[in-house]
């Protein structure tokens, strides 16, 4: 079907399908843009790339008659508020929504991610972000098992961490779909009256943006997290935020400079950030005179021993950065993003999530035992418990 318009127009085609292995959320609904002839709600028209090839056409049992060109013209005239001419209909059909997910993301040596693991409404635009995060979550764990000798049970945490996220994505996308197609009742009132007001509020709009983009996802209840109480900063299991830092020491040796956490973190490695107090009062930001930032730095020998022990446990797998507070532009202040406890450490996974945090002076033993159990060669931890 060709579309000609006097102004810019875009036509897209989509086809919904579900994996036969899917077991959860077996509900199948029509898209808010895909309904039967005569229904007052919108329709969706799909164009096949090769109408002459019968194999290119979808095979659906008990499928409703496809909308005709005249029906498509009537719909376009009623719903497109620009001059639009529809001609040369090659193929048309109805787009059905499925909301399904598999019961297990891992079965022995087989792992499922993306569309093979779940299918849902495109409402909310979360499908791509979900699949990317699943691939990243699984990829570094497979690499650690194959190249680093980590225990096989590390791979089980892929299902433990990601399956609850997928379930929530299906719930959200289904709710947004039902709200979008509601033509009466509370959902229509929520969509037409309440949502515009909420969207105009900055904090709520920012929270919704983080939720939809999936930057607010956290794995705090994952067995891979080691949490210790610090004065602020991201908790173990949360996404590591960016911050402006002054690099005291790093993988290339003592080459002081200023950078951002996001620039220092290499997704091919774990990153251990050791936060130390500024060596002089002059290094402290003028608007941050808190005593926690003006303390004398801990003995360098203690920090050196801490770094050496972690590096020896995860050889070639971790990049260690000794950083302190920096002054300037380019990112949030370190104290604002990571709290004011000094010295402390944050161990960041390759996928950018904090898997452990604590104090250099008291939590070295716990960190080493945690890394031995999950990330080091030859370890066999207890089976993880499901997240609820």
TrEMBL record:
Its cofactor is FAD. Residues 57-173 form the FAD-binding domain. Residues 52-63 have a biased composition (Polar residues). Keywords: FAD, Flavoprotein, Monooxygenase, Oxidoreductase. Residues 1-65 are annotated as: Disordered. GO terms for molecular function: monooxygenase activity. The keyword Oxidoreductase applies. Residues 1-27 have a biased composition (Low complexity). SUPFAM superfamilies: FAD/NAD(P)-binding domain. This is FAD-dependent monooxygenase. It comes from Paraburkholderia edwinii.
């Amino acid at each position: 079907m060709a579309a000609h318009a006097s102004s810019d127009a875009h036509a897209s085609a989509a086809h919904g399908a579900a994996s036969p292995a899917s077991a959860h959320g077996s509900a199948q609904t029509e898209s808010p843009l895909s309904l039967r002839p005569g229904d007052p709600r919108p329709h969706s028209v799909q164009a096949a790339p090769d109408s002459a090839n019968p194999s290119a056409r979808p095979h659906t049992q008990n499928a409703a008659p496809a909308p005709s060109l005249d029906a498509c013209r009537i719909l376009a005239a009623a719903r497109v508020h620009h001059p639009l001419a529809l001609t040369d209909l090659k193929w048309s059909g109805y787009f059905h929504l499925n909301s399904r997910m598999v019961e297990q993301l891992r079965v022995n040596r087989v792992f499922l991610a993306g569309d093979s693991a779940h299918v849902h409404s495109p409402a909310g635009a979360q499908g791509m972000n979900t699949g990317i995060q699943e691939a990243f979550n699984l990829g570094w764990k497979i690499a650690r098992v194959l190249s680093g000798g980590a225990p096989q049970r590390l791979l089980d945490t892929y299902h433990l961490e990601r399956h609850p996220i997928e379930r929530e994505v299906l719930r959200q996308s289904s709710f947004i779909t039902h709200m979008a197609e509601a033509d009466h009742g509370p959902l229509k009132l929520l969509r037409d009256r309440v949502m515009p007001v909420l969207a105009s509020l900055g904090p709520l709009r920012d929270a919704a943006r983080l939720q939809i983009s999936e930057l607010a996802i956290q794995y705090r209840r994952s067995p891979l997290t080691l949490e210790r109480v610090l004065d602020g900063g991201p908790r173990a299991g949360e996404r590591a935020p960016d911050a402006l830092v002054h690099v005291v020491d790093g993988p290339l040796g003592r080459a002081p400079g200023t950078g951002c956490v996001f620039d220092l973190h290499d997704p091919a490695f774990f990153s251990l950030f050791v936060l130390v107090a500024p060596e002089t009062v002059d290094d402290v930001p003028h608007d941050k005179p808190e005593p926690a930032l003006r303390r004398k730095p801990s003995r360098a020998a203690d920090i050196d021993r801490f770094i050496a022990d972690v590096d020896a446990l995860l050889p070639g797998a971790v990049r260690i950065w000794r950083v302190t507070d920096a002054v300037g532009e380019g990112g949030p202040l370190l104290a604002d993003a990571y709290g004011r406890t000094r010295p402390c450490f944050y161990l960041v996974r390759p996928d950018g999530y904090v898997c452990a945090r604590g104090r250099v002076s008291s939590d070295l033993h716990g960190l080493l035992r945690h890394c031995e159990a999950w990330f080091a060669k030859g370890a066999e931890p207890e089976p993880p418990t499901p997240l609820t």
